[in-house]
Amino acid sequence: MKKLILLICFFSAFGLSAQEFPGLDASPMDASYFPDGQPLDEVFQRDVRDLKIKIYYSRPQLKGRKMLGGEAAPFGEVWRLGANEAPEITFYEDVTFGDQKVSAGTYAIFAIPGEKEWEFILSSKLNTWGNYTTKEDQFVARTKTSVVKSSEEPIEVFSIMFKEVSGGAHMVVGWQNTIVELPIKL
User: Fold this and answer.
1) What 3 state SS string does 77-108 have?
2) Among 21, 147, 173, 186, which has the minimal tally of Cβ within 10 Å of its Cβ?
3) How far apart are CA 96 and CA 174, in angstroms?
4) CA–CA dist 34, 39 (Å, integer)
5) What is the pTM of this model?
């Protein structure tokens, strides 16, 4: 009993209390890999292929709102390509991003959405909240690609995936009624 009382006194004296963690983020973080499913290949005893590309990004939701071309992602303005912190993409080997050569490394990725065309931008500035601190002199590469409208139900949750194509991959971005594919050659 003395030990219990001593412990209570000790914790009270030093003001120790339970850690207060923040609530769940409305736009959770996710990751996509090329080749698809790569870090799980070893876990599930599948053929393990070398990881070529990885992207971390936040996934906002429509929740009945117009996001692309609206306040969240206005057409013609630099957008962080998701929510919260700007996504970071890692290339594990040199690539051709659209039509520009890019060295292996990690970059922040942004987009300038439009109704018919999107421009994707790689930046050397990492750990960036939104697009508020991006500067032209930190842009490493820029490339444009056409929009493909989705004929299906709206895509509720912002999503990025990679689709294997001859000579590389397409980074596929989908949200609202819009799908955009960015070619990346390996």
Assistant:
1) CCECCCCCECCEEEECCCEEECCEEECCEEEE
2) 21
3) 22
4) 10
5) 0.83
